Amino acid sequence: MKPIRAALVGVGAMNRIVAGLLPEKGVEIVGAVGRSKAGQDLGEVLELGHRLGISVTTDAGAMYASARPDIALVATSSFMTGQYAVLADCARHGVNAITIGEELLHPWHTAPERTRELDALARRHGVTLAGGGFQDFFLVHQLAGMLGTMNRLDRLSGQQTFNVDDYGAEVARDQQVGAGVADFARWRQSDERPPGFGLPILAAIAAASDLTVTGTGFEIRPEVAERATPCRSLGITVGPGDLIGFTTVDTVTTEEGPVLVMELSGRIYQPGETDRFAWTASGDPDVRVVNPGVDTLRTTCTQMVNRIPDVINAAPGFVGPAGLPPLRYRARPFAEYLLERPRLAVN
Amino acid sequence: MKPIRAALVGVGAMNRIVAGLLPEKGVEIVGAVGRSKAGQDLGEVLELGHRLGISVTTDAGAMYASARPDIALVATSSFMTGQYAVLADCARHGVNAITIGEELLHPWHTAPERTRELDALARRHGVTLAGGGFQDFFLVHQLAGMLGTMNRLDRLSGQQTFNVDDYGAEVARDQQVGAGVADFARWRQSDERPPGFGLPILAAIAAASDLTVTGTGFEIRPEVAERATPCRSLGITVGPGDLIGFTTVDTVTTEEGPVLVMELSGRIYQPGETDRFAWTASGDPDVRVVNPGVDTLRTTCTQMVNRIPDVINAAPGFVGPAGLPPLRYRARPFAEYLLERPRLAVN
């Protein structure tokens, strides 16, 4: 059985973890795309202690054409604005892709046109473009399943935190680490502020629960440093009163009645602080789920990796976790989970 | 759109709750089977304050033949020994069924022959016989999904409690409430002791996770009253030193390596005690889930009810949650979720 061939797109904090998970799943790395490490050997970039004979490149298209990966593992930026060209490039070269960009989890509400374009492009080229990551099980499938135990849902409400400093410089910058409160206030009002991470999550839960989104709400507030706080990923120290991140509150209302709310706080943690994850669904009956001390960072990477067979197996198009079967444990090499049937391009 | 027609099999604690959930799902009760309440009107048995014109009967077959239910909702006994005839009866009359009998969740290991017989019978008659209940999401799909976030699973370990007194007299008797310690020791050694509830759960999780069961282990210990403890469902008071229930520890080993362990304590609760539910999966990375204060009793009933469309839609045969898609929230009348395609009998 031939191993699955994967390309890393992005060689930052996330894909370095991903690279370490692939060998024992029988997935071979055949190419790597990166800006800052271009020209270096991937083995050196990953600090493996030996060369891999794979040169990190800025030219994704040329690499896809020569290395012929089955799938691209995309860990670059969080939003459609940064991801569109990357994913379109995969589709045009006949390469399946999965991204952990947060907006891409379910971008039909925040970037409907671009999502339709990616969907059409993927169908035309017979590949699957997928959103995934931490949210896949813990937010979409776990919560949609839990709602399935209820007779009546009134309100789903979640609080979640993540340590901005674990996800690399891109996310730290996006999360406004180091900004002053006045800068933040201006940015908050400006057009350049991208959508929050909460809406794609709530929209994905709604989609998986057969609920029709009729309205959305959004609030954002700064999280400021009480004392000088170092930020590893940016190599700076945030002064007291400046931002260590921010908290968003997203709300989704539905035609069927249930209201979905998510408070998401991405900030530099204090020493000893761990990821918080708690969700309550109110109705008949109330149900709750907590995932104590879940490692958001590592489970972002493990879930992207564990999705590889599902993405290759899926029908062509753009798809998020709500459109894929739930993740399952995979004890065997991933190539054994590939379906034999050839996939048909719909378009 | 015609409502779904359901029959209640058993009119005890569980199906009384179930009956209250059905009307707003567009599911009509067309018959009821019960031993102790035979001849009474179902409306009186359910304490609705009005008659339903449905007489509780002991003759399930005659009721199926005349009332033609689409599905039977079975809440009578916990084990294959008590359920086999009930489910076979459904199949022979062309009636789909779902049962909350704990062994029926995944009875392929504890009662393989009987399960194969029910499976063959169901295929022959073109119906689905299904196991379900509390375990459906909270134990099978939630845990199998969580394992899907891991790179490597070493050990899945769960602790769970339920209040024996919430589930009616049948379960309280099965759980040895009121027995003396010496009686319990004899019963523990005897052939009449039925399988524990843990093995079907662990086997279902293994099946949903593509793990091959190679061995099983079982321990059981009494839970004794520290003071006189009333048992509502049996109408007795348990004296100090006698049993308020017992705790089992089931273990499953797998060919692929992971070990699955479940400690399940079914006893009469002390005042203020609530259901405990906590599972840890150890490996890379460790992941945990807690469902704080989940109402085991009510979610047993809501999940049986919410499975109705899936069971009617499923291919003929015997199936547990591991063979069904995960539960999803259903805001609309259940008839709208029925597939239009006729189901094909495989056999």
Can you describe what's shown?
Two copies of one chain form a homodimer. The first copy, chain A, has 347 residues and is α/β, with parallel strands linked by helices. Chain A folds into two domains: 4-132 and 307-337, 3-Layer(aba) Sandwich (Rossmann fold), CATH 3.40.50.720; 135-294, 2-Layer Sandwich (Dihydrodipicolinate Reductase, domain 2). Chain A contains eleven helices and 14 strands. The first copy, chain A, has helices at residues 13-21, 42-45, 60-67, 80-92, 112-125, 135-147, 168-174, 181-189, 198-208, 296-306, 308-313, and strands at residues 4-9, 27-33, 71-74, 96-99, 128-131, 152-163, 213-224, 229-231, 236-238, 243-254, 259-267, 277-284, 287-290, 317-319. In chain A, the strands form three sheets. A six-stranded parallel sheet of chain A has the order 2-1-3-4-5-14. A six-stranded mixed sheet of chain A has the order 7-10-11-6-12-13, with helices on one face. In chain A, helix 1 (13-21) packs across helix 10 (296-306), helix 4 packs parallel to helix 5 and helix 6 packs across helix 9 (198-208). Chain A is globular, with a radius of gyration of 20 Å. The model of chain A has no long low-confidence stretch (mean pLDDT 94). The interface between A and B is large, with 50 and 50 residues. Chains A, B: Residues 147-324 form the 2,4-diaminopentanoate dehydrogenase C-terminal domain. Chains A, B: Pfam families: DAP_DH_C. Chains A, B: This is 4-hydroxy-tetrahydrodipicolinate reductase. Chains A, B: InterPro entries: DAP_DH_C, NAD(P)-bd_dom_sf.
